[in-house]
Task: structure prediction
Amino acid sequence: MTKIIGIDIGGTKIAIGLISIEGELLATKTIPTDQSIKPTKMIGQIYQHTLQLLDRAHTALSEILGIGIGAPGPINTKKGVITYPPNLPQWRNVPIVAEMKKHFNLPIFFENDASAAALAEKWLGAGQSESDFIYLTISTGIGAGIYTNNALLTGAKGNAGDFGHTVINPAFGQCVCGQRGCLEHIASGTAIAREGSKIVGKPLATKEVFSLYQSNHNEIISYLDSVFQTLGAACVTLINTFEPNKIIIGGGVSKVGDSLFDPIRDYVQQYTLNPDNRETAIVPAALEQNAGVIGAAALVLHTKQKEYSV
Result:
């Protein structure tokens, strides 16, 4: 048993990866998250696509050490349940581990997706040399994986780091969670597409909003600069609260590059409470879009995880 299956469940897509125990990504497959069907049917599709991936990679199930699953919160890792994720409105109290065990006679491990991605960056990425760091994902939603004192901080049920639902500015309106002005409602990829579309007056994808930013669209520049400042404030809050040596930023929005990272670094250097922490490194994720599946696989090797007995 020399290989691991990693599954990263997201609001818009699900990534499945085959990873060696040394951390090499051997094969990967991405499928859309169909929110028009029941979660159990979607899980059945995950199973079928996983078998296809194994077949393509000439890998037998007997070679698989276990399956790791990362999913957006809220979740309950004690029970193996996806409970109430705002970005998966049909997924309510879904016993993901029990459902997967109907298909696979393998050990299955389950964690919040941002926590799993943090574990990936610790294993193979930008967190390898760090005892204290935070992985901040900015994608469909926003979440944080917290690695502190050489351990993953997960909380009682696996939801520590659900940082996207920190209230920043109530004037921005109601978030999907019900609060007003959450960080995720202001600065996620979903929020950027929504607000950029309002500014231009037609539907835009997040990528198209960033293209307008690069093309010097004045209103978009003004809007996104305010978003970057908000993310800077968010990083200052994380530094003031957890005092990491490094913040690693991943997710689709991080692909904008220096336009995102430079204003965040400037904000941190100005406003972090402890002057000694104003040089906290703010770096891009080394594993980029593969952090989710690699992190899910890392759960299988993470010695503090326990197999579910459902």
The longest strand covers residues 13-20. The mean pLDDT is 93.
